[in-house]
């Protein structure tokens, strides 16, 4: 074991900041515009308190759970984030191995810097595939089919990105568009993407993403794949109900890590609204701002089946490669285990709404 390993996610963030060029750290860390939602995603967890129950035998804690029928060692899974080679030369292969070692799900980003095939053959992690819908539907469809034939278990359709949010750090840094090997041979790239300065990533997204993305596209996606489809980027009861109506297999409460619409609500503050609207029909996941095991505990108490973590895994990868990504997930698992023990919950099912006190509860 190395000396002085980080002891929490925050310390991994510091290491990542030191390890990465500023342009890449800013890309990972940044949010949209004023970054209000970015701060609030984390701050909102801080406003929820725990209601521990005592004198319960907690000598055995079982964090295991299932998602779409797949067994996981804990309810913490890896969110889809693009371009892991910015953090480590092994990229998503290292992340997938870390997820496999932790017996959890890895959601591979559409913007992966490793080929889907490479990630699929690198380990036996349960893998879901995240999809962006491009103007070129044939490109999106080809990638869905490739993922399906390679044994990915679900499609995570990102619905909060018909157009890219305004990430000012990327604009300022003239962020390059990371390489996307999965698109090679499927579409040609405009090498001139940088001629007007600003964020090349933004210009690439502008050229590729389809702003006409609508509920009809969920039907289209259902017609081209037999995999279950989770909708990622829902923050209202209205859309959650619609998601169930159109046959989504799961709803992911997400504001894209505050990288899309600034002043969207912090996700943990709307989780309960979505859970109520879904009324148990499908699992509800949440991401954005999870930095501690107690955050995971709070999400479970408010009805989440699982949480996804984005930046923390990226920080681990940037600081220490596969071992760092794995350590981040393990630390969060240990923190969750501790929170469960100290709240008197021996299994995920024992974590209930009465174990948390939200701001709303205090006002009532
Ligand atoms: C993302 N996110 C994201 N989401 C998605 O659906 N497809 C993608 O390619 C990406 N790429 C991406 C890159 C980076 C650097 C970040 C930080 C985020 C959003 C991601 O899936 C997730 O919603 C957030 O990261 C969750 O918030 P935290 O855990 O980072 O606070």
Automatic annotation (TrEMBL):
This is (S)-2-hydroxy-acid oxidase. Glyoxylate binds at residues 27, 132, 167, 256, 259. Its main location: other. GO terms for molecular function: (S)-2-hydroxy-acid oxidase activity; FMN binding. Gene3D superfamilies: Aldolase class I (3.20.20.70). It is found in: Peroxisome. GO terms for cellular component: peroxisome.
